[in-house]
Design goal:
The protein has about 325 residues and is α+β, with helices and mostly antiparallel strands. It is about 35% helix and about 20% strand. The chain folds into 3 domains: about 10-95, 3-Layer(aba) Sandwich (Rossmann fold); about 105-120 and about 190-310, D-amino Acid Aminotransferase, Chain A, domain 1, CATH 3.30.470; about 125-190, Dna Ligase, domain 1, CATH 3.30.1490.20. Helix 1 crosses helix 12 (about 305-315). The longest helix has 17 residues, at about 25-40. The radius of gyration is 19 Å and the shape is globular. Belongs to the D-alanine--D-alanine ligase family. It catalyses: 2 D-alanine + ATP = D-alanyl-D-alanine + ADP + phosphate + H(+). Keywords: ATP-binding, Cell shape, Cell wall biogenesis/degradation, Cytoplasm, Ligase, Magnesium, Manganese, Metal-binding, Nucleotide-binding, Peptidoglycan synthesis.
Length: about 325
């Protein structure tokens, strides 16, 4: 899939790599941003670290930055907030625009779009702050079965997520979710294999990268195992039957396009063991770029190095109001 690139790093101007931020995923974002910064500088890009938690965004214009690589994760970095600020300043940025970022960050809104498009996603129950009484929480197993998943709808990296196997554990799981979000999302548990599939590009030209199969340790695929241990096995090539991988890529592209994503993204899915049906869990519009991250792994399998990936994404940076740029 790799295509020759003809990108003059000097033409990209002074570049801010936005990293850190104020979300619960700050630590991961700092790691992602450090990797991106090093990669861009190695390619001759005039790139500089910029942490919105420590500096005001208006400094981007004052200090002559020409475009931004968003390596922020979670709230205020992946949810349309920083995208809106950059849009107002007329600074091109990597990844999806305001609307797609905001929708994709909210798992409930994402599910509504996917269900309207006929795309497969696990059954769910959404509890707004005024719907979280004892009876509503106790009713979840009847609606979703057991085990079930409780998660904050606007967080990532498995933060605040609990697998509930007994109804008696529901109140504690809800309390854990409420630490991160005023809403609660209950989701049907899909027994099977966890996979992920990145996408590069926009609209009809968007292309799915190779699928990665995730084989977690017995403790599960939690925040710690995602970023700070080597206990998880990542299989790319996935080892899935070719027809099954193609179908997953088709579904992921449809999910990506339905949300209006651009630049890049990564969909997380489960394959139900009983019938091999894939189910979409979420769409990440600012995926991780750490040493444990999956988009670089998949891109590498497609013949795209980490450095080429960063340069390609940066060259495609734009605002919502700008025409798509050809890299």
């Amino acid at each position: 899939m790799a295509e020759p690139m003809n990108i003059d790093p000097r033409s990209l101007g002074k570049v801010a790599v936005l990293l850190g931020g104020t979300s619960a995923e700050r630590e991961v974002s700092l790691m992602s941003g450090a990797g991106v910064l090093q990669a861009l500088q190695s390619q001759g890009v005039d790139a500089h670290a910029f942490d919105p938690a420590e500096r005001d965004l208006h400094e981007l214009k004052e200090q002559g930055f020409a475009r931004c690589f968003i390596a922020l994760h979670g709230r205020h970095g992946e949810d349309g907030c920083v995208q809106g600020a950059l849009e107002m300043m007329g600074l091109p940025f990597t990844g999806s625009g305001v609307m797609a970022s905001a929708i994709a960050m909210d798992k409930v809104m994402t599910k509504r779009v996917w269900l309207a498009e006929g795309l497969p996603t696990p059954r769910h129950v959404w509890l707004a702050p005024d719907q979280q009484d004892v009876a509503a929480i106790a009713a979840m197993p009847a609606q979703l079965g057991l085990p079930l998943i409780i998660k904050p709808p606007r967080e990532g990296s498995s933060i605040g997520v609990t697998k509930v196997t007994a109804a008696a554990d529901l109140p504690a799981a809800v309390a854990e979710s409420l630490r991160f979000d005023p809403d609660v999302l209950g989701e049907e548990f899909i027994q099977g294999e966890e996979i992920t599939c990145p996408v590069l590009g926009e609209g009809a030209s968007a292309r799915a990268l190779p699928v990665i199969r995730i084989v977690p340790p017995e403790a599960g695929y939690d925040y710690q195992n995602k970023y700070f241990t080597d206990d998880v096995r990542y299989l790319c090539p996935s080892g899935l039957p070719e027809a099954e991988e193609r179908e997953i890529q088709r579904i992921v592209l449809a999910a990506y396009r339905s949300l209006g994503c651009r630049g890049w993204g990564r969909a997380d899915l489960m394959i139900r063991a009983s019938d091999r049906q894939p189910f979409l869990l979420e769409m990440n519009t600012s995926p991780g770029m750490t040493g444990h991250s999956l988009v670089p792994m998949s891109a590498r399998a497609a013949g795209i190095s980490y450095e080429q990936l960063c340069l390609r994404l940066l060259a495609a940076a734009r605002t919502d109001s700008a025409r798509p740029q050809m890299a």
